[in-house]
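Morning F.,

Quick status update on the modeling queue. The single chain you submitted on Monday has been processed. Sequence for confirmation:
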Amino acid sequence: MASPGVGFEYPAQPVSWLKRDVLLFANSIGVKADELHFLYELHPNFKVFPTYPIILPFKGTEQEVLDFYARSSSTPIPGVPNFDTRRVVDGQRAMTFLKPLPPTSDGRAFEVRSKVLGVYDKGKPGTVVETEQLLVEKATGEAYTRAVGSSFFVGQGGWGGPKGPSTINYPPPQKAPDAVYTLQTTAESALLYR
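Structure tokens below.
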């Protein structure tokens, strides 16, 4: 059975950012002073942290604090039930960095172009929706990043859709780890990264 919704393209979403946004992002994910080129806008090699585009579909062009749940509701996918976006968890995400992001979008128009790659009914546990998101400069059509990700809609399966591809399950090694690195975030991190 072909997966319903495959190839469905969401309406393109305009996005924008300021230096302040990328600085706040770098601080909120725990970038340290030894990577000052992500934290100080006057650094001669100032750069946007590469994963910043992952939040742009939630931010859009908004410069104010936003309601995550209200922003999470999306255009329905044809042939697929309407899922409750308050009961979804991030499955996985793979990003391809095609071109460095400018420190600000000021004076240029960018948009996120999203399409459905697959919708998989996992029965009672839930449904997996796999999407691709391209961050594109509207005037040139150049893509800056490509993100392929999946969302798991908890308890929202059993609607008769295809099960989807099997994933490879790697058992954990039966030995001690080769190395351990512990990084303690602060209690305030969750207040910044939201």
